[in-house]
Design goal:
Blueprint: E1 2-6, H1 27-45, E2 55-59, H2 63-69, H3 74-95, E3 100-105, H4 109-112, H5 115-130, E4 141-144, E5 163-164, E6 167-168, H6 183-196, E7 205-208, H7 230-237, E8 261-262, E9 271-275, E10 304-306, E11 312-314, H8 330-338
Parallel strand pairs: 1-2, 2-3, 3-4, 4-7, 7-9
Antiparallel strand pairs: 5-6, 8-9, 10-11
Helix pairs in contact: 1-3, 2-3, 2-5, 5-6
Amino acid sequence: MFEVVIYDLPGRDCAALASNGEIPATAAGLTDYETNYITPITAILSNAKYASLRIVAVVEPDSLPNVVTNQSKQTCATATPFYEQGIAFALNHLHAISNVWNFVDIAHSAWLGWPNNMTGAGPEFAKVANMTTAKFASIDGFISDTANYTPTTEPFLPNPQLNVGGQQLMSVLFYQFNPTFDENTYDAMMWQELVNSGFPNTIGFLIDTSRNGWGGSARPTALNSSPTTAVAYVAANKIDQRGFRGNWCNQNGAGIGAIPQANPAGVNGHIFAFVWVKPPGESDGDFPSSTHSHGDPHCDSGSTNTDGSGNTYPTGSIPGFDIPAGQFFPFQFQQLVKNSFPAIQ
């Protein structure tokens, strides 16, 4: 099997800075994307010498999730029609190759997991599917947690509604009433939303496990039922060691997750496989400094991130490094291997 990430939409990464687009979100930019990016890729993949390969195309990470949740940002509102048209074009051309399977990015539980976001996601993905020639058949599945850190499961927090000390676990600040604590739960709930929006019930998911292992000494090894408050209970039992689920850049303490495998055990039946999409050790981005202005403050270990309620949190990025997006980051790679779970021997 061969994986290829399709990732260069006009106005790409409209809500961030570290890897935002090289192609402008304009009609001319869309033509450039279709003519000089998608068409050459599909010409290569359709070569007869690759016919025996099973090719998995991961289609445009973060794009349609930004359409769902970030219309208040002018950059995303402007990019939306080009995202939709560009993805429909890509799906049409990739679907025409019999040994290519299209998996569209569907963000992760800490992004679209809230009920309001999820109910908006189904119609948006259905809209784009219906813009293609083959309709729903042009999408073979979806991928969650691309390049992110959310655990596949939270084994000691299976019940978001569990009441501890008079408070539901999902109401603590770390979860902010998001009932999807992990990708397994998120994908199961998103499957139902997608089916409700017209996708066949055979639709399924991949999970990017390249950085969601969270091993190491901080990882809980058994349920700790002694805390008497919901906040303490979550802190004692969660696998995800970030201080804020919105932290996404070069997270300190992360580890490689489960190795790629088809039909993995321990998850719901709609999950087709675990894959590694984000190469472990590839930097998420650098941050603005006195020597260069490009970058994203979210990648600065000395800066903070803010949630929708105005609460601020340290970014959680690895301190002491300022590595441009896409460059290999040896320290991060070594840390990911050290904290891998299951442990890489």
